[in-house]
# Entry
Amino acid sequence: MPASDNYKGAQQLSSATDTANALDFVVRMVMGQMATATVVKVLAVSNAGGVSAVGTVDVLPLVAQIDGAGNATPHAPIYGLPYMRLQGGTDAVILDPKVDDIGLAVFASRDISAVKATKAAANPGSFRQFSLSDGLYIGGFLNGVPTQYVRFYADGIQIVTPGDVAIQSGGAVTVEAPTVTITSPDIQLEGAVHVTGALTGDSTATFTGVVTGDGRSLTTHKHTGVTVGGGNTGGSIP
# Structure
């Protein structure tokens, strides 16, 4: 009879009772040497959010190795795993991993070192298979509460950051909404400002340059019908 489902990886009394059980034990030992996927913690990252090509991470597998007697042996770090970036051609979301992130490392069935070096089709770099040396990192598992994020939820989209937000465009930037509200103690606009609708102010306005309305300068316009004394002037003229 094959070994039971509670098989733990060590040789059992039943493993040598017949050929089937002995073969089952050998197969399980070989399978135990295959790296497939595991949870890892990031120890180092080659990039730090800059505009650059996708980098690599050094990681530590978090699931320890167990011998036949149940003794644990921690893993050694694995170096230089390429990490995943959401990218298509030259369009990308740059979100590099950070130290202490927890993610998933998956391991290729063949040696990928030649492909990593050339970024093109290549033969396996060696005859190794299912090796920890041929890992790829996918992040974002079991991590904590973020303080900087883009949030998609039922009522809309929220962008939160404790730092700066910079938008750079080589073309026009268009915002369409029923209402646009900007709340800030200091709003600075650089360049010409053109308003096509009504402009209403609820406070004072101060200008250092010339202010013109309907063809009349606020500082240099003249009035008609001026009479010396206490009378009011007439309407202003250009």
